[in-house]
Amino acid sequence: MSACLLSAAATARAQDAALVAGPSQTHLSLSPSLTHLCDREATLDLDGAVQALAQQRFEPLPDGRTTLGFRQGACWFHVRVLNRNAAETRWLLMQNFALADRMDLYVRHADGRVVHQASGDSLPFEQRAVRYRHPNFWLELPTGQPVDLFLRVQSQNSMQVPLTLHTPLAFAATVRDGQLGIGLYYGILIALFFYNLALWLILRDASYFWYLFHLSAFGLVLFTLNGLGFEYLWPHSPWLADKSVPLSICLSQIGVQQFTRVFLGLRQRWPRGDFISRALIAFFVLLAIVSTWLPYRFTSAITTTSVLLSVGWIVVVSVAVLQRGYAPARLFLIAWSMFLLGSVMFAAIAFGALPKNFFTEYGVQIGSALEMLLLSVALGQRYAALRNENERIVSEARDQLEHKVEQRTAELRSALVQLEDAHARLRESSQRDALTGLHNRSHFRDRFEALLRQSREHRRPLSLLMIDLDNFKQINDRYGHLIGDECLRWAARTLGHALRPHHDALLARFGGEEFVVVLPGLDLAAATRVAEDLRQHLREQPFRSGPHAITVTASIGVHAIETVAVAAIDPLLQLADQALYRAKADGRDCVRTSQVEAA
Predict the structure, then answer these.
(1) For 123-131, which contacts have Cβ atoms below 8 Å and span 24 or more sequence positions?
(2) DSSP secondary structure code for residue 62 in this structure
(3) Which of 129, 175, 224, 481 gives 229 a disulfide partner, CB atoms 3.0 to 4.6 angstroms apart?
(4) Which tens digit of pLDDT belongs to each residue from 362-413?
(5) Which is it for strands 543-545 and 514-520: parallel, antiparallel or unpaired?
(6) d(Cα 396, Cα 401) in Å, to the nearest integer?
(7) pTM (two decimals)
(8) Residue 439 three-state SS
(9) Widest pairwise Cα distance in the chain
């Protein structure tokens, strides 16, 4: 009966050309020629589908989109394929959507043979043709013979059918590129996780804990949406594959709402908003419980919509707290706006409102990666704000409540000591100054001692330059600390560029607006010429920031070291510092040596 019906269908659709795989093709998208028929009762079998094709009831995909939204029942899809690539008769049909529940593929050959295969996350993972996160089927496509593909898809998730044929080698290349992108994304998440875990273990700040909770839960969300959870974590449990998406989404939203409450301090800054956030947390806890027994088609639509509402609410509270003067909320708002945009695109695909392409399919990954990075930066900004707030409280307490100063100061000092101690440990773990990128003071001392030993052993001259930017406080006071920081970075780059001819020179930020340079192999006269060159470089190239052009000058002290007699570096630094103060005393913007002081 199937053969007769198929012959009738072929006659009725004689005007339709088969989708041709050319002699050199290795990839073939089925979407342009794919037709579909929705079976709301899910009662249609292959013979019924063939009869419907003969009656021309199959229709092209709406607007060519492979996303049909949430559909009740089942959908049948048909395409006729003609293989003209004589070198490749074995092809892999891949469904580029990991969450399809059940897919039944019927391959009808020209001789009347029908081959049936099944895939999807309602079946154990090992039943797939290739152990890969997306459902797939091996096909034999004889050269020059048309083959009819009938695909029945029944899923409680969004109905998405981005179908592609690959040769084996082309599939291997596609998998390699896809795994690279996924590896990069999860590499970012893992790096952020351990970085913030270290900060939480040191600082014991609750915001870091809830950030880690959200990061881990959302990583699990995408691990599930990408099909990796079914592939690696629960390959023998179709039930978990079905329930993991709403459960992981609920966990992620619980973590993010709690993180928002702690980070923005909603209880203090906006109690009404804090109440709504706690209500959302309770809602997601309840939704996680009921999703274990409710059909997935209900929980999937509910959780997808709820994520938009949850992230939208975060944007609302961020704006409200920002209007109340809390500066870290600005970066927090930008981060969640990125994530909201990606979530909107993800939901629009799920409901069939947007076509599936690179940006819409991976928008939530891109948005979440930017969101995680910006949130990590925002946590650092919040830490700085808390430290500044503590200092302000100390000052006010000293001025207003003298009789409580001792007790309050002891408490705040204890907290500040812990914070500063944690900050010092983090700072010592790196050899670079965070602002300028130059070597920091600790690393400078280690290198300086090594250079002293080398100069002593080889009896080579060694000179030390102490550099201080003139009137730098006025730049901060007039243009603000952000421009002041940018000026320090500019000065570091300028000094580094001027010192390029001196390959052995050691340049470091000594502290504040002070820099220090060690010049191996140069005596006092040569070092003085280098110092004069550095001064000229700073003066002749004004620092520019937006509309501002700021002339920056420097006072430089030079000390030539007698390497035979030196045992410690602190006296050397003091001599160079004395020469620097002499330069400042002589009107700034000049170079002075320590020859008078050393004498």
Answers:
(1) 123/238, 124/235, 124/236, 124/238, 125/230, 125/231, 125/235, 125/236, 126/235, 126/236, 129/92, 130/92, 130/171, 131/231
(2) G
(3) 224
(4) 555 666 666 666 666 766 766 676 677 677 777 776 767 666 767 677 676 7
(5) unpaired
(6) 8
(7) 0.53
(8) strand
(9) 112
